[in-house]
Design brief:
Endonuclease Iii, domain 2, alpha+beta, TATA-Binding Protein
């Protein structure tokens, strides 16, 4: 029998919370392609963090959050949005080069989120060779069919948590293909079973040395260097990791090596040494900046294979 959501969507009265913050852009942070479950609705962003639906707005020097249930604390949102991070301290570590300075100026207030490891890994496994709008659709369908319903405000459409590894591990490849996962279906299923069975412990993602953690992720079928580095940066807290996809490769060529095409090993060494201890943050600025500059329509970016 096909798995279904474990509960119908609950409608509750909303509760709000204000967090004073400087230099924070929800548009750049949530719309830059590092996560796939945030949607711009009028002047706000809506998404699901773990098992909580949340609506976010910027106002009067603060992030204003609205949830459907009263919260005992808001550490989960502080962590996800990285609200306690001193952005200016991070930017101060960036190298003094005109290209990066231009990217920072164009994408002011962009933060690197801290995502739940399984959702981050699964989402980027589903991203291979897909446009961002397609990735969002695949992830949304997966959540609607197999994720648990979460509480939403009265009158709001249903919302769902990302399916846990054990929930996906019980599915068939055909069920995942029905979510438009395509050739990624067997790879995602194998990853879900590895996590559910304890063969891959994502809870210790940020506790092991970088190279060891990367190797464990890349041992999964369908996880290459780029996907592994995205998980290390966005979920593992390895701020120095600099994922390279086709857009970042293009940024490096256009902004740093305009007159020659260096070998991949040279580009890798450059990316690992030039941008400093927060190279992954610099990568996001370059990635988002080039997409905005060359396309204008951020929803049509193609994510390369693993």
């Amino acid at each position: 029998m096909e798995p279904t959501n474990s509960a119908s969507s609950t409608h509750r009265a909303a509760t709000t919370w204000h967090w004073p913050v400087r230099d924070y852009s929800l548009d750049h942070t949530l719309g830059c392609g590092q996560a796939f479950r945030w949607t711009r609705v009028s002047d706000a962003w809506e998404g699901v963090v773990g098992t909580r639906w949340v609506r976010l707005r910027e106002g009067d020097g603060a992030i204003v959050a609205e949830t459907a249930e009263a919260q005992q604390d808001w550490d989960w949102l502080n962590e996800a949005l990285q609200l306690r991070v001193d952005l200016q301290a991070i930017l101060a570590t960036f190298p003094d080069d005109p290209a990066l300075a231009e990217a920072v100026a164009a994408c002011g207030g962009l933060r690197v989120l801290r995502q739940e490891p399984w959702e981050c890994l699964a989402s980027f496994m589903l991203s291979a060779t897909k446009q961002i709008v397609q990735i969002r659709q695949i992830v949304a369908t997966l959540c609607e069919r197999f994720g648990d319903a979460v509480a939403v405000p009265a009158g709001h459409p249903p919302a769902y948590a990302f399916p846990r590894p054990g929930q996906l591990a019980e599915l068939t490849e055909a069920q995942l293909r029905e979510c438009k996962a395509g050739f990624r279906a067997p790879r995602l299923l194998a990853a879900a079973r590895a996590v559910a069975e304890g063969r891959l412990d994502l809870d210790t993602l940020g506790q092991l040395p970088l190279d060891d953690t990367r190797a464990r992720l890349m041992a999964l079928d369908g996880v290459g260097r780029k996907i592994a580095d995205c998980v290390l940066l966005f979920a593992g807290g390895f701020d120095q990791v600099f994922p390279i996809d086709v857009w970042v490769l293009r940024a490096l060529h256009e902004l740093y090596f305009p007159r020659r095409r260096p070998r991949p090993s040279v580009l890798r060494h450059f990316s690992e040494t030039h941008f400093g201890p927060y190279g992954g943050h610099a990568q996001q600025y370059l990635f988002h900046y080039l997409r905005m500059r060359t396309r204008g329509n951020r929803s049509r970016t193609m994510i390369p294979a693993a």
